Amino acid sequence: MGTKFGASLVTPFLFLLLSHVVFSTTNDGLVRIGLKKMKIDQKCHMNRRSNTIEQEETPGGPIRKYHLRGNLGDSEDTDIVALKNYMDAQYFGEIGIGSPAQKFTVIFDTGSSNLWVPSAKCYFSVACFFHSKYKSSQSSTYTKNGKSAAIQYGTGAIAGFFSQDHVTVGNLVVKDQDFIEATKEPGITFVAAKFDGILGLGFQEISVGNAVPVWYNLVNQGLVTEPVFSFWLNRNTEGEEGGEIVFGGVDSNHYKGEHTYVPVTQKGYWQFDMGDVLIGGESSGFCASGCSAIADSGTSLLAGPTTVITQINHAIGASGVVSQECKTVVEQYGKTIIEMLLAQAQPKKICSQIGFCTFDGTHGVSMGIESMVNEKLEMTSDGVHDAACTACEMAVVWMQNRLRLNETEDQILNYVNELCERLPSPSGESVVQCGALSSLPSVSFTIGGKVFDLAPEQYVLKVGEGVAAQCISGFIALDVAPPRGPLWILGDIFMGRYHTVFDYGNSSVGFAEAA
Fold first, then answer.
1. Element of type H or E holding 336
2. Which parts of the sequence belong to the Saposin B-type domain (predicted)?
């Protein structure tokens, strides 16, 4: 169903919990949806794939007055939905389905085009027990459809069937909207997710079942005056607001200067032409003759051709998460592991005894390095810490083998370090030194003849505080062959720095510095 791309981030996040939702209506005709946040020391793994693109996934507060493009002034035809921030890596807001409205939190995703939520008929997927479920029997406006539907994800597929009902977005009610009731949600991804479903804002060309997207119906039913929506993503994780999406207008308080607009070159995604990528102000060369790019609110990171990403990661000193963890394990605990092996400790229990793993060795170290890495990373729900567990287990196997050859301690440690250097990151994620951020170069994208800069603090995700802080590179490799590629996906890292306007009427995308 189109080209499939891969991009995932495996890193710990602080959960920000929807603790209170406030609805208010004022005389400007806008419904303000306030979301409060609460930090919880918990971890989660977000990895999702829409029907044609694998992506990562994605706290609102009081919403201010909006000013529309085109001097429309205050109007009932502008609607605002607050977005909640998942430590710079996920944004979601609330909608309603049915009459009376049943509430759901959804990712507002410009990289897909369907609306889906869990169904009350989802009986056998664990994820459904942790999220709100749509109950058609409780809605007076429900219309049966029943056509089967499936959307492919990295961990399998969400499957279900189409139904039709009214959908409430802010204070706007879309009538007779087709959506998917998901009856199957495989994998850990949806269990850990703090969102119930996804509301796609892409074009109908990539809609599963050719269902008319919610945004199309907002326009077709005359619910918005301007066929425009815009995103402001608050990258300040301490801020009260996670961000805002505005349907039918743009908040002038959320950007500085003027937007630079570029035409959509291929409908489906919000895809446009992009020019050179600069590293520290110098051309990377690869996109000098042009690349394509997608503005995607459902992706956390910046994905691009391996050729350029390699140059960027070299310039910022990024290394693979597994490789980095492996070297850390060897540096801090290499001698201890050797001593434990010489003391006849059970190899499979060493890593749990040291504290890297949370189990007692039942995980199959003897299965072989490659299979162990793959299985471990597929099973993980706590990527960086599980990478340390995996690295420890591999180090034990390697050291045990070298001890059989009667090598010295220094020889063993040097050999294992060399293997660590060669470890790939199966999911492509990389880490950088948090203390080096101030010395890292800027990375810039040329769009519509204008250069859009990203500073290190903007393209690096910092998780945790103090000595426990982890800094994750916001760049990940993605290779798409012509004519579709070379392709960049500009996710939340870019959209957080630059306020983004999706102009459906003029088939264009606009960027301006976020306020």
1. helix 321-342
2. 321-361, 385-426
